[in-house]
Specification:
Helices cover 0% and strands 25% of the residues. It has no helices and four strands.
């Protein structure tokens, strides 16, 4: 028996397929008879785990607001790596006493595909 080990690297744009399948086949040379060809193929399957490089940046329009002032928080969220179909959840809890003004919330279009 001979053991052959090799390493392969997936390219960054490979995607987030759920199963990676790799099949190996061994064949006999001409003139040689294999008495059992049922074991001449083997397949390895591995589920892929999508990886991402998520980031979030939060800024505020006024670090020292006066009572009654409008405060604008800006959130920038993105994924600098991995598949673009990663679904992430963003939670932003405001400090006690503040409330969202839903009429002023603006969500921009992505600047690049995510």
């Amino acid at each position: 028996m001979i053991t052959y080990t090799f390493t392969a690297t997936l390219p960054p744009d490979f995607g987030s397929e759920s199963i990676l399948t790799n099949t190996v086949v061994v064949t006999t040379p001409p003139g040689v008879t294999d008495v059992d060809e049922r074991d001449n193929q083997s397949t390895a399957r591995k589920g892929l785990i999508p990886k991402a490089e998520l980031y979030v940046d939060k800024t505020v329009s006024d670090l020292r607001p006066n009572q009654g002032d409008l405060i604008v928080y800006t959130l920038e969220v993105g994924n600098d790596g991995g598949p673009s179909d990663v679904i992430a959840e963003l939670t932003d809890v405001l400090p006690a006493g503040l409330a969202y003004d839903l009429s002023l919330i603006h969500i921009s279009e992505p600047t690049r595909p995510y």
